[in-house]
Amino acid sequence: MRARSTSGSLKLALMGGAAALVVQSHGALAQDGSETIMLERLTVEAESGDILVQDGYVARQDRIGSKIDTPLAEIPQSISVVTQDQIEDQKPRTLNEALGYTASANPNGYGFDSRYDAFYLRGFPAHYNSIFRDGLRQYNGPSAWFKTEPYGMEGITVLKGPASSLYGVSGAGGIVNIVTKRPKDEQFREVEALFGNNDRYQAAFDFSGPVNDEKTILYRMTGLGRLSDTDLPGYSDDKLYLAPALTFKPDEDTKLTILSEYSQSVTGSTAFFYNPTYGTASDIYSGDPAWNDFKNKQGRIGYEFEHRFNDLLTVRQNLRYSAVDSDLKYSGFCTDPDELEYYNCEYPGRSWGHYKEKTKNFVVDNMAQFEFDTGPVEHTAIAGFDYGWSDYDAHSARSYVSVEDIRSAPFSFAGSQETSQYGVYLHDQMKWNNWTLFLSGRHDWVDTKSVDYLERETNQTDREFSGRVALSYRTDWGVIPYANYSTSFSPNLGFVYDGVTNERRPAQPTKAEQIEFGVKYEIPDTNAVVSAAYFDISQKNGVVLDGTFDDAGNQRQRQLDLSSRGFELEANASFDNGFGLIASYTYMRMKIEEGLPGTVGNELSSTPNHIFSLWGRYDFQEGALAGLGLGAGVRYVGESYGDDQNTFKNADRAFVDAAISYDFGARNPELDGLMLQVNAKNLLDTRKQICTVGNCYLDEGRSVFGSLRYRF
To answer: For domain 44-536, which architecture applies?
Structure first.
């Protein structure tokens, strides 16, 4: 492990997007007035280690697999973790980028599009119902999505395959749990300035530590401000992000942590390129720079409470309220024949749209944990009840005349939906000698009231049981084989179009089941873990985009029956000599079992059979190069079909990333905590088209940015 940042008395002030450095002397301590002793450098990490325990690129323990603090290697299900060190080394700008080196995750289906965190897990769309934050589901509306700021995370845990037996509403491919930065019980202060191409200017800060000497009150305040353009005209990437957090620990058995966020962002509202023919993306950008703002305001506040009564019983309650307010000003070309005729729009004339949507969510999870023995079997069991509520409504306007016309165009109702979900669950984690058995069961009740754009109301009630049975065995030499069977259940927000009548209707709940076999290996006396898994997932009523657009400008969704079969390999390591490694490979075939005519038996569009990634970093520990860090990675995405009819293919592609950093404190104690880093995404400027359900997008070109960070 390298020393990532250290204490010192250097002060960094960020003013107007620039850094001003004031260096004060620091370093040697006199023992007796004549002999000087250099103290060993102290490592200061950004992660709290509260929920997610990690060491370099290797995660050791988390609650995501069982809602219990459990070593990840002992959870009999495939789990990947993006650690804090990986986030700092690779500098992802979005959640999609953060998942780029994760097995079975595919964030490449829509080319360059920073508006949404849209990605796939084991071939299944995961952006609507599979994103969790701190163990609670993060609800998204049709367009009012929560946008994740990577600087506010201390890690990401990806639980592969169905997980509804513990977490309720979630997708077949798994869940992505974002771990928020939490208060630390030691002082941590960080400021950072970042500059990059496309006039990217960003300043960030992260302060944490105890409020009182007893360390019973801890705080954390994280913030970021950014002004940036992109390669696309009129498409910005601006953001303000503030995330205060507070922890109360009156004793060792009681803890309350309050987590909150307010952010507002402005990106471009159109990321699409004009498609002159089916299956072809041109270099003509569809957006109108004069009408291209996507304004997103979001906030969340909640808490995590825990109290341990005795050796038998611990209770927890996690609660959060959140809201998103989205305002999209988008545009495009009139290309649809019906659109051209109905609106008298001369080809290739332009259309403009205005769409507003608000989403409000509340979720609370109550659980009791019991630890007891029955003979030689050790039990850690939980019983829980959770409740979730979500509500969205939308309004839209459209013009085929001009920007001036759309500015004053009246809004019309575009739909609304209110959902209430109740769930009860039981989980027992049993250990006997080297065996671990998981038994999980849950029942959900979901009531949904939907109103379509014609103001027709539909009420729907869904009830379903989901479960998991999983078994693992730890051998004496560190190899842990496992097997599991799990199911998922997910009522869906929004509307879909019926495959037979083509009428708009509320989406039916999605159900899935998985069989998985795998093996994990913790290499003895080494901070390294390797794993392999085979999976077979069948899904009913999966929601996918179909490539056509409704009157509000939203891409229509349909429901298909899908199956995903494949295997994945993954390795994470951080060695004492300064070398770190992340590697993954996934082979998968995503098949349409039931869908529109001409698609049954085909592969789902933009789901490649092969995905490979490799990242390595080396930090020089000694000699003249001490403090220098070099990192490089490659992300390979294999061929895939461009539409569900499988009439044409997307070419394979490889993206090369690189990083170089210098820790000034490695050779000069007076500069302890100061680090300069330069990152390059898609270094070789690979830019190809990627088509999903027949709509074609373009990859983002090369981006380079440098950052200057100081921890003190």
So the answer is: Beta Barrel (2.40)
